[in-house]
Amino acid sequence: MSFNVSDLHRLIDHTLLKADATAAAIEQLCAEAIRHRFHSVCVNGTRVALAADRLADSDVVVAAVVGFPLGATDGDAKRYETEALVDLGAGEIDVVLNIGRLKDGDDRIVFRELRDVVEAAEGLAVKVILETALLTDDEKRRACSLAVEAGARFVKTSTGFGPAGATVADVLLLRECVGPKFGVKASGGIRDRATALAMAQAGANRIGTSAGVAIVLGESAAAAY
Length: 225
Hints:
It is a single chain. The longest helix has 14 residues, at 23-36. α5 packs across α6 and α6 (137-150) packs across α7 (168-178). With 225 residues, the chain is α/β, with parallel strands linked by helices. The chain is built from nine helices and eight strands. The protein is 43% helix and 16% strand. The chain has an eight-stranded parallel beta barrel with strand order 1-2-3-4-5-6-7-8, surrounded by seven helices. β6, α7 (168-178) and β7 (183-187) form a beta-alpha-beta unit.
């Protein structure tokens, strides 16, 4: 799959999810997203209102994480969190899959949780974070099927806080599982343009990274996400 480097900015979810992220850092994140015309900023729930305010006169979307970073919160809590973040101005939801339940084979519970989040998002795009480094290929395939069935719009490789981030092999596998029209987001450890392009060429149509500026400028950066 070919991809034009000049279009990279449209794929980027400019991300800051560190626990010590200050208001000033979030404001800088938003300013960078506007300047470089990124698709979105991705922030923790406590920063959604601030980001929505700073981006109000732009085309940049606020993406908010739910059940982050472990995915182990109760399904009702994930639904409530989604409802609250939509009310605060989130335009997309990145929810962490219930990894332990998937490994237990509790697919009905995993599906119900995802479906509840999709319903609570009220038509907004929901991205399901699989944390692929913790899953077998069979578990990745099951997770993809559940995400599609639940009405999500994307599957996403990683939180950026797990044992490893995105790989080209995983992006290829996720794209194979969900088909050509469903979203695939590569995230975790993407710090330079070459890596971002490799993910896009493998089938990712969204890139989650805290190094968005370095990527579009053709530089490299040390980044946790």
